[in-house]
Amino acid sequence: MQNIDKIIDKWNTDPDYVIEMMQDIQDELRHTPREVLEQITKRTKVPLARLYHIATFYKSFSLTLQGIHKIQVCTGTACHVKGAPNILDAFARELKIEIGETTEDGKYTLDEVRCLGCCSLAPVVMINDDVYGNFTTKKIKSLLEKYK
Amino acid sequence: MNKIKVGLASCGIAAGAKQIQEYIQNEIKDKKLNIALEETGCIGMCYNEPLVEVFSDSGQWLYGNVTEEKAEKIIEHHAQNDKPIKEWLVKAENIQTDDDSYFAKQLKIASRNCGIIDPTKIDDYISTGGYESLKKALKTSSQDIIKEIMKSGIRGRGGGGFPTGVKWESAVNAAKKKNEKPIIVCNADEGDPGAFMDRNLMESDPHTVLEGLIIGAYAIGAEEGYIYIRREYPLALKRIESAVKQAQEKGFLGQNILGSDFKLEIKIHRGAGAFVCGESTALMASMMGKAGEPRAKYIHNVESGFKNKPTVLNNVETFANIPVILEKGAKWFAEIGSGDVSENPWGGSSGTKVFSLVGNLERTGLIEVPMGITLREIVYDIGGGIPKGRKFKAIQTGGPSGGCLPESHLDLEVDFDSLTKAGSMMGSGGMIVMDDKTCMVDIARYFITFLKGESCGKCTPCREGLIALDEILTRITKGKGKEGDIELMDNICETMKIASLCELGKSASNPVLSTIKYFIDEYVAHIKDRKCPAGVCKELIKYKVNDNCTGCTICAKNCPVDAVSGKPKEMHSIDQEKCIKCDICNEVCNFDAITVE
Fold first, then answer.
1. Nearest-Cα residue of chain A relative to residue B447
2. Prediction ipTM score
């Protein structure tokens, strides 16, 4: 919990910046669990209900632990037109999970994201911070090999 | 010394530019070459990424689709021995290439430096005349700057099209009345799927955005500025953060800017993933650490916005235009574009607009064109038309709030007013071209599903209307449409238009209404004939093997559910019971032997 305090301090316990704090915590812990939200409440005096509203309103946050590698299949308009739904399905088949779920071994979380802004290279897939353009289902196996 | 520049914006990196840069760096190091290596942003030619530019005695040569093998030769022949390689050239001075037509009709104002300067270095921006407009502004009265912006006719590039000068003046008046300092905010929450103009401006030329913002702050008398960037753009965020720091060091931000009494502090907020936060009041709620729910706007932001202070919110691209307007003059700017803005800014659409031109096109990328250019010129002259001999079906503009226009509307002029009249809108600048393999009912469902997920849920017409529309459209795409569904959707759309709280809800019905208006036949085919003419809706299509099949077995090997069977060198067949319509057989087939019916 020391790390959490450090993050809250970084934003000067400013209630305007709770969303920023929560993003840093999400990055650090791969989720924003209740204990953490309670700690933010204690330090910033922002009501727990509002933090819960934020955690469930914005897509960046999750209340449950996310996988080590976050796979985001872009389903923006250009990617949709160029076959993103099939790619998303193929990932789900390969990982044996549904969209939004995490594999049992905690390695991968599969999600869709509406537009990474690389539309000219559609369809696009992002793993962690790396973006892969002109993606095809054929590339899935070798890509997962890279992120073990 | 010869120089090599690699384009390193997000799209370039996704295409492998980072590896190319590392490769070139290693080559230079290993072979101890006397070549400088620099980076730049994106020139907008995304279809040719990764791009590498060589500067030598032969001039400036831009190479496209560079691989490591090509990079090795480019270094050896061109960068070292000044023998350019013409086959790989995409752009050079004095030499004609096939790609010249991509630029011929473009006019770059906001994106003038993109792909040319190094976005990580403020001195590169300064050397192109950067921050000169700020210097000029500080010697001018703030009223005169607002007058100049008003005269230029520039309207909000985020899609709203509200005249920037009018907005600034209203904020100044409100601030005087309330005796408060106004706030200035840059909206960099580019959420429209299929649009990435602002991302590129921030990644490739962050200082022009910043300079525009600083000039705006001076004009309205703000001492506090904010930039709200969506989290999905990590590189843009990094570039803007570093640009703010550099500008502070150079004295363009902070106390006593350039020796004047003017002071400005800029803070950055990261969006946490909510489309509705692009809406001004939702954005401001988010900046105050709340869920991004809009409010009704009977009180405008310019009177009471962020923390109830008079607030000006402008889009990234709007700010990027400001330094150029001050440099070249309002008159120059007003003469570019369509309509006549000399009497008032509502009279036309002056200047240029950056568009992200994507979808089923030969040449995809970012373009900046004068307002008033036709859709046909954009699709065919710049975009190079539809690939693989397919036919144009529709162009989608304006993001989820926009609409789809058919071929018969391609001669429409692109500006704030004419596309709106046709039932779409120019919006922030996403343009997605769709060929005859795109199902328009599926597209309508796609946007509605998106908006359903993004609706904040505060007002009933938007929340419930989208749920109902999604249900009906999903039903239709599954072949379970009912007679009367189209009329029912019309009815729901009408209610949402009239009764929703914010623009998201008011315009959310556009994708449905425009596709019904222009592509009603496809709806009828889905509902009455239970067919998807474009071959997209899975419940309505079948994959079959045709006579082209050579029995190569590749489809059978790749089918994830073993639905394909057949002996080698004999025609294969697909078990319809097992087939999940994943399209993999079609993708791997080398003989065009899969038919989608």
1. A77
2. 0.93
